[in-house]
Structure formats: C-alpha cells, structure tokens
Amino acid sequence: MKLFSCLTALLLFLLQAVPGLSLPRDTLRCVGYHGFCFHSKSCPEPFAAFGTCSRRQKTCCIDTTSNFHTCQDEGGHCVPPEIKCLQEQVGLCPHREWKCCTEV
C-alpha cells in the first residue's frame, strides 16, 4: 500500500513538473474560473460559454447563477494589464491577467 501511495505521489508530481503532461492551458484557465468543460458547442442552462477546453475541443461553461460574472455582463471591458483603468470593477475576463474596467 505504501508503494502504491509513493507511485501515485510521483505520478502527480510528474504531471505538474513536466511540460506537456499537465492539463491543457485553456482547460486550466477554465477550471481557474470555476468553469466546467462540456462536449457540446453550446452550454446548457444556467451556464454561459466562456472559451474553450481540451485544446479547443470542448466548451468552457461558467455558472451564471453564481457570483462569477463576466466583465461584459457587468457592463465593463476587458483590458490588458499595461492599460490603466480609471475605474475597475469585478468581472471575469477571458485572459486571467486582464482586468475589468468601466472606464479606460
């Protein structure tokens, strides 16, 4: 049993440490936003499409009934970090580093 635990720990370490063995980047981004990956191109209710998963083979869907709302739903615009916002607001942007601004 100890051997199995050690092998499992080693496998998990390798999946995180070796590039290309972990989850695809778009899937990690989706999960980071508390999203779910669906096989269909459209999301079932109460989910909204928020990008792709599994190297663009699946659709990333986020729950619209949760506290996680997209920037555009809140009336903002997603901008890269180098642009300064006059007023920031809460909202999800497709790129993790980007911010949600009401005024740029």
Automatic annotation (TrEMBL):
Give the family this protein belongs to, as stated in its UniProt record.
Belongs to the beta-defensin family.
In the UniProt record, the gene name given for this protein reads GAL11
- What residue range is the signal peptide? 1-22
Q: Which PANTHER family match?
A: BETA-DEFENSIN 1, BETA-DEFENSIN-RELATED
Q: Which residues form a coiled coil?
A: none
- What would be an example GO MF term here? CCR6 chemokine receptor binding
Q: Where in the cell is it found?
A: Cytoplasmic granule; Secreted
Classification of source organism: Eukaryota, Metazoa, Chordata, Craniata, Vertebrata
Write the record's keywords in alphabetical order, separated by commas: Antibiotic, Antimicrobial, Defensin, Disulfide bond, Secreted, Signal
Q: Which organism is it from?
A: Aptenodytes patagonicus
Q: What is this protein called?
A: Gallinacin-11
Q: Primary place of residence?
A: cytoplasm
Occurrences of domain Beta-defensin-like (ranges): 26-61
Q: Which Pfam families match?
A: Defensin_beta
Name one cellular component (GO) term.
extracellular space
Q: Which GO terms describe its biological process?
A: defense response to Gram-negative bacterium; defense response to Gram-positive bacterium; innate immune response in mucosa
